[in-house]
Amino acid sequence: QVQLVESGGGLVQPGGSLRLSCAASQNIFSIYAMGWYRQAPGKQRELVATLTSGGSTRYADSVKGRFTISRDNAKNTMYLQMNSLKPEDTAVYYCNRARGAITWGQGTQVTVSS
Fold first, then answer.
1. How far, CA to CA in Å, does 14 sit from each of 11, 82, 114?
2. What's the pLDDT tens digit per position in 13-46?
């Protein structure tokens, strides 16, 4: 069973940047379309960025132009570079397959606040 471990979250001021990492126990990033999700308190989990096995990317309108999804197949790791962060980006961030989610990791908390 593939395990996913997210890291890199923290407290950042509005306008700041963070880079999240998603480490997988097996090579899945070159096989499946993968995504970064987030869940804010009291809200449903939403998909914010997708990276296909072929390298195509897609972003939710709320993060387009600010977030960049990428991967390093050799390291079995996927990244989410988040720039120009806003308070509304505050959430727990998760990675998983874009379709047919597998077991969720623990996520990483991102808090944007002054």
1. 10, 11, 6
2. 999 999 999 999 998 988 999 999 999 999 999 9
